[in-house]
Amino acid sequence: MKNLISLAKELLGKSATGYTIYSVAGILIISVFSLISCSNENEETVTDAVYVADENGGTVSVIDALKNKKVTAIDLTENSVMFMPHNVQVAPDGNSVWVTGMPMSENVSEQVIVINPETNKIIKRINLGTEQHLAHVVLDSESAFAFVIANESNQVIKINAKSLQEVLRYDLGADHEPHGIRYHNGKLFVANMGAKSVSIVDVATSLIDEIPLGGIAVQTAVLPDGSFAFVSLYDTKEVARIDLQTKTVTKISLPAEAKGPIQLYPTPNSKLLYVCDQGGIGDDPVSDKVFVIDVNANSVTATITAGSKTHGVVVNNTGTKVYVTNSDGNTVSVIDVATQKVTGTVGVGLAPNGIACRHSMGSTFEGMP
Question: Does 105 fall in a domain?
Answer without folding.
Answer: yes
